[in-house]
Amino acid sequence: MRTLFLGNEALAQGAIDAGLSGVYAYPGTPSTEITAYIQNSKLATELNIHSIWSVNEKTAMEAALGMSYAGKRAMTVMKHVGLNVAADVFMNMSISGVHGGLVVVVADDPSMHSSQNEQDSRFYGKFAMIPILEPSNQQEMYDLTRYAFDLSEELKLPVLIRTVTRLSHSRAFVNTKDRIAQNELNLPEDTKRFALIPSYARGLYQNLLDIQPKIEAIAENSPYNQLTIGKDKSLGIIACGLGYNYLMENFEDECPYSVLKVTHYPLPRKKVKELFKTCDKILVLEDGYPLVEDMIGDYFGDDTKVIGRLTGDVNRTGELNPNIVAKSLGIIENIPQEIPTIVENRPPQLCVGCGHGDVFEALKTLIPEIGDKQVFSDIGCYTLGVLPPHNIINTAIDMGASITMAKGAADAGVFPAVAIIGDSTFTHSGMTGLLDAVYEKSPITVIISDNSASAMTGAQDSAALGKLKDICLGIGVEPEHLKVIVPLNKNHENNVEILRNEFNYKGVSVIIAQRACVQLPKERKEIVKQLNTLS
Amino acid sequence: MKTNIIIAGVGGQGILTISTILDMAAFNNNLHIKQSEVHGMSQRGGAVQSHVRISDSEVFSDLIPMGKADMIISVEPMELLRYLPYLKEDGWLITDAEPFVNIPNYPELKELFEKIKSYPNHIIVNATEEAKKIGTSKAANVVMLGAASAFLPIKDDGLLKAITDLFNRKGERIVNINIQAYKKGQELAAAVIN
Fold first, then answer.
1. pLDDT of B50-64, one tens digit each?
2. ipTM of the complex in this document
3. From B80, which residue of chain A is nearest by alpha-carbon distance?
4. What is the dihedral of CA A42, A47, A53, A57, to 10 degrees?
């Protein structure tokens, strides 16, 4: 069947058709639509495929491993920085291996359209010594996902699929195939390999090393790695993932150079060698960090045979595009117009009526009293507080860091140290940091700006809904220093007063500023209201 | 034959509706398509764009190369100019006259229109105003699609079928408003082109 799919949707449909039993994920651009598609799929619902959001990427990946342990096919999905959160289980499950097929999907964001860095997940795949698949188009998103589950079960290892923003968020027609039935529940014959005590783990690590030649041989012979020998031997090109598209875009008819299209890692050594032998120079096109270029380039830089991002022939940072690739090929293009100076920047901004804005306003009133460098923040819509007209927050590093950075600053003598964190970010990674602060009675004030959604990624359900007060009390926040406010202009004076009092307290205070995200549909706002009154 | 279209606007203005209509029409006409769009933070009142590439042969890049767009369709006049480096020499600029002002330093309208008019191939239509007259300002994007229709590789009946299919679930009234919006855009543009 031919269907129009967003890259992420093609991948999701590929997983459903591969006999998926569960997807585990935390929302994050550009990965969110994969899980959302499965949640909204009628077929997936009929098939009883698990698709409820997890609290964070680590819990997601561990749950996926649990489903795989039970013999079923599972997928875990995240954005690139989410893999940092899940890195513990990720690195260890390549040692334990998997039982039912387990596919890890990571969506990277080169050019940082919606992220705090542009780290390249292929490094993680290489680090864990597992196969990596890097689709270059929507059809491959579908086909490779199906293939990834088979490969995972053949090798008894997780398989990493790496996509990037431009592919995840681009549509094309995709041909789908018949669906495979889900695996039956079946526990592993030998559970020893899932118990990584040192004496077992040493042997299991050796197994992982021993299987490497097989993993390499599969990639070497993979139909997804194609070497095409061209007539012009002055240049050979290694085109990874989307790099291949941008290369072909520049040649209407036929590329005159030899091209190795890399879609399946580890890097197919023999094919690279053949390219090396037949061409004078090798250009590496990869959408991300210079992983392949670094592997095959000369360590001391005196061999000019390999060119790419490291040599400056391709931009060192940011995503590739057809024009960057054209330049690296020496193609001169006609770009007649520039952006006129009359065009102003139009950065994203808080929605009209957003509760975060009222929290910022209350804080702004108190800045002259507390100083302007003592507000730590986090990852979410409220990160916009770093920009005008708010200019209120100073930090945004990673999920949960507002609370722990405030604590560290307080330890250094900063008072008051204030943290602003969203409800979903708080349950993702803020709770443990709050316990650190409670344990030491650190003088910090934590404002949980609670809009009852993971708003920035599309207002997904937040696991924190209706539980924040209980969580904070359970962690040990003193009831008299746990306040709930409603961030509305009419409450401004009152809210400022509450904040001021808590800023002055030399222990842990938590203020829950509670008002539903304006993007939530009416029915969900009603549910939020009810749950918040009950708690 | 390949047609490269940039669709521009501000997050929340519904530019993806234009892309979706083009996608559906391309599907019905057995054409190849690649259509990239912006998700995430920029959707909150920031600048957004969609690259739509329609072709009778395989399309490789999801992004239109700079200097290769046949037209820029914008639902907002300043956003139109943001993507000028993508436009080819004789490409068309097609925009709604209605500004979306959500920044304090939005340029003077007079200068903005002077700038747009300094490019020979431009079409400025009062899409929002016309859409309101037809029934809802929400149909401004379909007015814009109509205004661009003379340069699209898909004929009227294909686009009208896609509009009907897309809005069908919203009822006959909305379908009719959007068909009228399309035709209005076409009529306004024809007056400028000729």
1. 999 999 999 999 999
2. 0.96
3. A343
4. -130
